[in-house]
Specification:
The complex is a heterodimer.
Chain A lengths: L8 E4 L5 E6 L10 E6 L6 E4 L13 E6 L2 E6 L8 E9 L4 E4 L3 E5 L1
Parallel strand pairs in A: 1-9
Antiparallel strand pairs in A: 2-6, 3-4, 3-7, 5-6, 7-8, 7-9
Chain B lengths: L2 E5 L2 E3 L5 E8 L8 E6 L5 E7 L6 E3 L7 E6 L4 E6 L8 E9 L2 E5 L3 E5 L2
Parallel strand pairs in B: 2-11
Antiparallel strand pairs in B: 1-3, 3-8, 4-5, 4-9, 5-6, 7-8, 9-10, 9-11
Classes of the chains: A mainly beta, B mainly beta.
Chain lengths: ~110, ~120
């Protein structure tokens, strides 16, 4: 099992807003920033959100991130069919001295 | 264009060795931390190792400590992963990634390592 906990699946209809949670502990999310990755089917992951809530250039502002205590969330507003993908959270863990990922959430657009 | 291209994957028997390479281009390689991240078939992402800009600091996930060695050659803009004593559970696509400003960006296309007899 992963150090960071994500729901295995999420779904929404086009135009809807969905959120994906990521739960950790004081040694990772609680003391370090969180980033999020999108992995479209058959492709390499892509950075979606860094430093909790920052978007790299080219990432639509429909994607937003937040962090509170030992948990973080990714929100996708105005859901589109091309958002159907796997999403992963990640953070540095001070106890493990390494990066830890969530198990991933498969988003389905109904 | 920033680009990372992995090579060196393949089929290897349990207990065998393999060396992965990653060729970097389009950025000043020597100024970034670099990492390897792997993904077993149908599974999630797992960070494997990272290395500081000058190679002086290295970190590994517990499951590969003592078996894998990360290294870099800044003169050749290249990152390496020497993998020894390979096990079936090391079977995965291995991605070379750059750490930039809080996240891994970009990712290479990945190279598949299959450990099987």
């Amino acid at each position: 099992q992963s150090v960071l906990t994500q729901p295995p699946s999420a779904s929404g209809t086009p135009g809807q807003r969905v959120t994906i949670s990521c739960s950790g502990s004081s040694s990772n999310i609680g003391s370090n920033t969180v980033n999020w990755y999108q992995q479209l089917p058959g492709t390499a992951p892509k950075l979606l959100i860094y430093s909790n809530n920052q978007r790299p250039s080219g990432v639509p502002d429909r994607f937003s991130g937040s962090k509170s205590g030992t948990s973080a969330s990714l929100a996708i507003s105005g859901l589109q069919s091309e958002d159907e993908s796997d999403y992963y959270c990640a953070a540095w863990d001070d106890s493990l001295n390494g990066w830890v990922f969530g198990g991933g959430t498969k988003l389905t657009v109904l | 264009e920033v680009q990372l291209v992995e090579s060196g994957g393949g089929l290897v028997q349990p207990g065998g060795s393999l060396r992965l390479s990653c060729a970097a281009s389009g950025f000043t390689f020597s100024t970034y931390w670099m990492s390897w991240v792997r993904q077993a078939p149908g599974k999630g992402l797992e960070w494997v190792a990272n290395i500081k800009q000058d190679g002086s600091d290295k970190y590994y996930v517990d499951s590969v400590k003592g078996r894998f060695t990360i290294s870099r050659d800044n003169a050749k803009n290249s990152l390496y992963l020497q993998m020894n004593s390979l096990r079936a559970e090391d079977t995965a696509v291995y991605y070379c990634v750059r750490y930039r400003g809080g996240g891994f960006d970009p990712w290479g296309q990945g190279t598949l390592v299959t450990v099987s007899s």
